[in-house]
Amino acid sequence: METGFIGLGNLGNIMVKNLVESGRKLRIFNRTIEKTKPFEATTSVESDVPSLAKSCDIIFSILSDDAAVESLCFNQGLIANMKPGSVHVCLSTIAASTATRLAEEHAEKGIDYLTATIVGRPEAAQARALTVCLSGTSAKKEAVVELLTDLGGKNIKQFGDDPKSAAVVKICTNFLITSAIEAMGEAFNLAGKAGADVALFHEMITETLFSAPIYKNYGKVIIDESYDKAGFTSQLGFKDTRLALALANDAGVTLPFADIIKNRFIVNHSRGRNLYDWASIAKVIKEESEPLTDVKQSQ
Amino acid sequence: METGFIGLGNLGNIMVKNLVESGRKLRIFNRTIEKTKPFEATTSVESDVPSLAKSCDIIFSILSDDAAVESLCFNQGLIANMKPGSVHVCLSTIAASTATRLAEEHAEKGIDYLTATIVGRPEAAQARALTVCLSGTSAKKEAVVELLTDLGGKNIKQFGDDPKSAAVVKICTNFLITSAIEAMGEAFNLAGKAGADVALFHEMITETLFSAPIYKNYGKVIIDESYDKAGFTSQLGFKDTRLALALANDAGVTLPFADIIKNRFIVNHSRGRNLYDWASIAKVIKEESEPLTDVKQSQ
Q1: Quick one: pLDDT at residue B297?
Q2: Chain-chain contact of B190 with A175 (C-beta, under 8 angstroms)
Q3: Stretch A121-142: mean pLDDT, rounded?
Q4: How far apart are CA A231 and CA A215, in angstroms?
Q5: Which of A146, A212, A274, B25 is most buried by its number of CB atoms within 10 A?
Q6: What share of chain A is helix, strand, coil (3-state, %, to 5)?
Q7: Does residue A143 carry a pLDDT above 70?
Q8: Mind telling me how many Å the CA of B243 is from chain A's nearest CA?
Q9: Residue B298, CB half-sphere, CA atoms under 13 Å: how many?
Q10: pLDDT tens, A67-111?
């Protein structure tokens, strides 16, 4: 089966490398052609979406947001050119409602649509240790699972036949991550202002009740304020928070933690940290309890 | 050195058992005398606080809240009767400001005051796997650390000379736990309402990014709604949330997640779940998105 891969960003780039190393033959496409250069010898680089779409049975795409995925599917001609019976596996984090609509648009042309959301950062992709949440229906699902393993998936979780389910799970996972970041931001700021040793506090909780990567890694980022080395940008975190709020709206539920987090991102971006790590919303918390230099301080 | 232990509640009871099993000789006191019965053969049961206070060099106390600790120290005569040079080790979760004030009151009589807050539930005490956060100054600190180990402490973290620091850390830890409960409550409710398999979602996150006891254990409690088997009551969770808000107020910082959580507890208690597990605040989230049976539903 001919396999295509669209999107050579932070994650896509490593996934293609993994697939090639696993002996997979690929046709690849990226809007910015320069990013395909390192793969000229090992893959077939396509110059446009239609030529890739016409010749593939399974096509993976990983792009930054809903608008980019919709542009790929419609404006750039993916759906119009894919073969009936072929499958588009969408790896991007997009709205659950977009997943539902895209699945319908694909189905009208006899094309399958699967959602395969990725839990893990580039280092995890590099280590072939990604978790992948898969949902939707396709006769080619088994072949897709094998490819997901070859692109760096270690733990492939099947969330059933509804193409939106894997999107829902990814959105809820990122909401939990931002909630943990905000909670640590508030707790560390409070502990520090109240005179406790914050690094030791962090050590204590991550040795015990919170012995998980999110608390270990982001806790350290928050304490070190090493926000400029972005593993995942504030801008993308803001997008995912808005996806969570939109999903909550559609589902008729409140999400008060996400309301607070959304406002953190808005303030964070007003301060110019769009491209900092999303954990930099904790910096906003700290700034809230610090004097401003241009305000005359009381004696 | 003569050692005393006051408070035979859920945790205190197991701690005394552990101390006895470690070969420690103890004088114990509990307001409800019945609870001392199982220890009649293995400890010296005192009938009032002053007689215990007069004869001990190191006294541990573990009570439910600030009022109980203050009553012990003042009304019941602990401070008035302790020997100069002796030390009171307070294991209760109380306000940081109370710890500071109590340390001063003890110091005036030449008595040392240490805060040793406990991170862990009764099962952890049973398994001698408690984490203990210790702070304050005393010449007997080393002897206290040995006793903390014998009462079930595995990991004794030293938070310096300020008696309030260990209280601050405990309050911030419990704030992080309630934040994780609220975040899971919101995320699971949203995922479920949006049609995803919540149990599988929980399995996925706890196998990966959130592979920590808090997410594993409370996540399961929330999904199973097994709130009536309280490991830690909603009532105590409410108290600790108010302690966090009071500390934030004193420190001049905001704590917006705790504001939301405080309101969850208020609603939870209006609904009669004071003595349910504190994770039952997640039930309030679920109830928010469910129809009320006495409201005529639209067609």
Answers
A1: 67
A2: yes
A3: 96
A4: 15
A5: A212
A6: 55, 15, 30
A7: yes
A8: 12
A9: 0
A10: 999 999 999 999 999 999 999 999 999 999 999 999 999 999 999
Which amino acid is it at B187?
A
pLDDT at position B194: 97
The owner of tokens 């004696």 is: A299
* Cα dihedral across residues A203, A206, A208, A209: positive or negative: positive
Question: Which chain A residues are closer than 8 Å to B173 by Cβ?
Answer: 187, 201, 204-205, 209
Place of tokens 């509804």: A162
**How close, in Å, is residue B74 to chain A by CA atoms?**
26
CB contact under 8 A, B208 and A244: no
Q: Model-level pTM? A: 0.95
Mutation target among B168, B171, B190, B285 for the A interface, most CBs of A within 10 A:
B190
Give chain B's domains with CATH numbers: 3-162 (3.40.50.720), 168-288 (1.10.1040.10)
**Using a CB-CB distance cutoff of 8 angstroms, which residues of chain B are in contact with residue A187?**
172-173, 175-176, 179
Residue A298 has pLDDT above 70, yes or no: no
Closest-CA residue of chain A to B203? A157
d(CA A52, nearest CA chain B) in Å: 33
Q: Does the structure's ipTM exceed the value 0.90?
A: yes
Q: Using an 8 Å CB-CB cutoff, list chain A residues near B250.
A: 194
Q: Which two tokens stand for residue B47?
A: 């009938």
Q: What angle do CA A129, A98, A56 make, to 5 degrees?
A: 65
